[in-house]
Amino acid sequence: MDGLFFYWLSWIAVIILLFFTSKSWRFRFPLLIHLFVLMVVARYQINASELSINLSVIYIFIAVFIHIRRLRFMQLAGFVVSVFTASMAYCCFQLYSILDPVWLLFDKSWLLAISLNYLSLLLFSAKSIRVVGLMAGMALGDIMTAILLSKVSMPYSAGSFSWLDDAALSLGLATAGIMLGYASRLLQAQTIQMQKERPGYE
C-alpha cells in the first residue's frame, strides 16, 4: 500500500524526537512541525490541467526556502545548481524505470535511494544542506517527471504516496549515514582517550 512506509517511518521519527532527543536541541521542534504538517497535507493534491501536484511537495519547497534563506550568494548558487543536478538524475531514473524497466536489476526504491544518497555526498558537503538538497532534488525531479509525462498524456501525480515512500527511504538512509559517521567519530575519540590514559603513553 503506497504511503504506508512514509507514515510508518514518520511516526518512528516523531517518537524518537519526542522521547529520545534533548529538549534543548534546536532542530527538535522544527522537525516535529515539518513531520506533522507533511503527514496532514500528504492527502491533498492540486490539479492544474493535466498536471497533478501533491501539497507535500509544495510544503517541502517552502521549508527548503526557509532553510536556505541565510546562505551567501555563492553558497546559494552552488546549492541551486546541485539541486538541479540531483533533480535531473531523479527525473532520468524515473523516466527510464517507467519507459524501460527491464534494466532494473534490484528493487527500484532501494536502487533510487542508494543512488541519490551517493550523488548527494558528491554534490553537498555540509550534512544539513545535504539532507535538504536531497529532498529538494527529489521534489523538483518528481515535478519535472510529471510535466514531461503530461506532454505525452501519461497520468502521473507529482508527490504521490509512492514518491513519499521513496523520499522517506532516501531520507532514512541519509540520516542513518550521518548517525554512523557521528558514532564512528565518537568511538574514535573514546579510543584515543583510552590510549592516553594507559600507563607509559607518550
What does this structure look like?
The chain has 202 residues and is mainly alpha-helical. It has one domain. Helix content is 73%, strand content 5%. Strands 1-2-3 form a three-stranded mixed β-sheet. Helix 2 (28-41) packs antiparallel against helix 3, helix 4 crosses helix 6 (127-151) and helix 5 packs across helix 6. 26% of the residues are buried. The chain crosses the membrane at residues 6-22, 29-46, 52-69, 76-96, 102-124, 131-149, 169-187. It holds the Pfam family YphA.
DSSP summary, beta strand count:
3
Percent of residues in β-strands: under 5%
- Low-pLDDT regions: none
- How would you sum up the global shape? globular
Structural class: mainly alpha
* SSE succession: HHEEHHHHEH
So how many helices?
7
Task: Estimate nothing, just give the exact number of structural domains.
Answer: 1
| Largest sheet entry | 3 strands, mixed
Strand order of the largest sheet: 1-2-3
Q: What is the radius of gyration? A: 19 Å
Estimate the helix proportion, in percent. Answer: over 70%
Mean pLDDT: 85
Termini distance?
A: 60 Å
